[in-house]
Structure formats: structure tokens, C-alpha cells
Amino acid sequence: MRKSYVNNNIKQKEFDALIKITVEMSRYLYPYIREILKSKEDHEDNSVIWNDFNKRFIELIKERFNIDSIRVKKLLNQAETDEIIIKYLLTLSLCISNQGNQKLKKFLFDF
Amino acid sequence: MQNKLSFHQSAVSLEIIGLPDYSNNENKDQISIISQWKLTIIDKPLIEGKIEHLGPIMNAFYIYSNLLIKNEIPLYESKLIDIKADNLHIHSIVLKSSKPNVKPLNLKIGNSLLSDTINCFDQLNESTKVRIRKTDLPYSMSKKLGFGVINKVKFLNFIMPPFIAICSLILFSSSFIYFYNPVEEKEKNELINPK
């Protein structure tokens, strides 16, 4: 999915480290994640926070991902993007506890 | 005098009231015998109950959130609590009282309050000061399960290339059987070395 053509398999230690970083970051950013989720609940179509986040998310995907890939095209499809973003944000917001690493791993295996 | 412990996460707080188990030589600030719990969600009615209600309610939230993440039908129903999704952002909760003639309590919470509530439950689960019988959490993954999946993938990656190589060698060499006739070969040998 990424623009990079290097296709190395991730090692167990690297996978664990990435999980740890992700959980620490979501713990740190929880107030922001919560606000983004909340903004969509309050104002269905007219939320500045949600629109800003969505815009930046799409910008980053176009910048770093291979937009010719079908899976990336799916991410850029407006109808499906909202659902995907909410699911990812909710997943991150549920993994901020001390055992968040284990929870995130479990969620990733279930995806 | 009863002990009180509170767990907070943004707009939600969970209060546990109870006593330590002195017969087990516990500290006086520990809670092992829970007499009451209260779940306060800002702008929503107070939810409270006894210890026998806490486990099923926590489990309901955990199972429901798991269904949401796994893209399965987000619906949980039990004698005590029903949770279902109204849409992507709003979840309906129906809490049924165990007392007769008490109407069920209907709540609507968004994703933010749902994650706050589950994070409060996580704090309670991880607390060393409250000892409750840990409920069987649906996401409580054993390490073996996680690594098992990775090991399986690794094993397949390791075994597949030589397996395919050997199979293709067998298929390729079996085609040579059409060019080799052992009877003709035998006759040739007899002509060269006549006895």
C-alpha cells in the first residue's frame, strides 16, 4: 500500500515496538482522538474538527501511499472513508490502558 | 467506614465502594468486598448497582466494543443490559432493573462516551487496590494465540518455497519419461555387446 518498493517482512521485535509506540501515542493523543469522535456525533455534516482531520488524513494518504492500489483507492472513497476513520479512531481510543498493547494486537489480528 | 475508589476518564467516572477483607490480611485501603458501584456519565442519569451487576455490565461493554471493531453486527442482548448501534456514531443502551415494576433505563451514548466508559472499566481491571473476580474478557488474548498466528505465517513462508520447488522439479522431470524408453535402450545394448 505504501509508495516504498521495499517489501521486507516485519520482524517480531519490530512489530512489538510499533504496537508499543502506537499505544503510547494514542494514550498521549486520547483527548484529541476523543474530540474528533465527538465532533462527528454532535454535528453530522458541519464539523470543523472532523473536516480538518479528514482533509489531513486524505492528504497524508495521497502523499505517502500508492494511490494506484485498489486498497488505497478504497481508503480515498468518501463514502467508505468516514466509517474506516471512525473504526480506526475507536480502536486506538480503546487501547490506552496499561494492557493496551495486548488489546491492539488482538484487534489487529481480528481485522 | 467503607472505602471509596474512583476511576476517571474524561466525561465518565466509576466509583467503587466496599471493604477490605481483613481475614485475608489486606491493607485498610484495599477493596475486596464491593457493596456498591456507581457509573457517572456527564449529562446522563446515574447508573448504580451491586457487585453481581458490575461483571455482566462490564462484559456487555467489552463484547459490544469487540463486535464494533470486528465489523460484526453491533448488537448485545442479555437479561440485564441491551446495547445496539443506532448508527456509526450513536449507541443505544437499555439497562433493565432486577426489581419489579421499575422501568428500564434508556441511554444514548456516542463513540467518545463509549470509549471513556470502557477505559474506566480497564482502569478498574488493572487496579491493584480493588480485587474483583476478573470476568472473562473477550479480548483477553493469551500471548500464545497472538504469536501462534505469526509463527504459523512464518512457518508457511519457510516451508512453501522449497515445497513448490520440489513439486516443480518432480513435474518437470516426469515429462522426460516420454523421451526415455527402457526397452529400446536394452536392445541397443544387446546390439553393441552381442553375447
What are the key terms here?
heterodimer, A: 111 residues, mainly alpha, B: 195 residues, alpha+beta, Transcriptional Co-activator pc4, Chain A, 2 domains, four-stranded antiparallel beta sheet, 4 helices, elongated
Topology of helices and strands:
The complex is a heterodimer of chains A (111) and B (195).
Chain A: H1 12-28, H2 30-42, H3 48-64, H4 70-76, H5 78-93, H6 100-110
Helix pairs in contact in A: 1-6, 2-3, 2-5
Chain B: E1 3-9, E2 12-19, E3 33-41, E4 47-49, H1 51-69, E5 75-77, E6 81-85, E7 90-95, E8 105-110, H2 111-126, H3 143-174, H4 182-192
Antiparallel strand pairs in B: 1-2, 2-3, 3-4, 5-6, 6-7, 7-8
Helix pairs in contact in B: 1-2
The best one-word shape of chain B is elongated
* Percent range for β-strand residues of chain B: 15-25%
The residue ranges of chain B in which pLDDT falls below 50 over 5 or more consecutive positions are: 135-147
Number of E strands of chain B: 8
Strand order of the largest sheet of chain B: 1-2-3-4
| H-E order of chain B | EEEEHEEEEHHH
Mean model confidence by pLDDT of chain A:
86
- Distance linking N and C termini of chain A: 16 Å
pLDDT averaged residue by residue of chain B: 81
N- and C-termini, Cα separation of chain B: 115 Å
Question: What is the overall number of helices of chain A?
Answer: 6
Number of helical segments of chain B? 4
Number of domains of chain B: 2
Percent range of helical residues of chain B: 40-55%
CATH architecture descriptor of the largest domain in chain B: Roll
CATH level 1 class label of the largest domain in chain B: Mainly Beta
Beta-strand residue fraction of chain A: under 5%
Radius of gyration of chain B, in angstroms, nearest whole number: 32 Å
What structural class do helix, strand and pairing data of chain B support?
alpha+beta
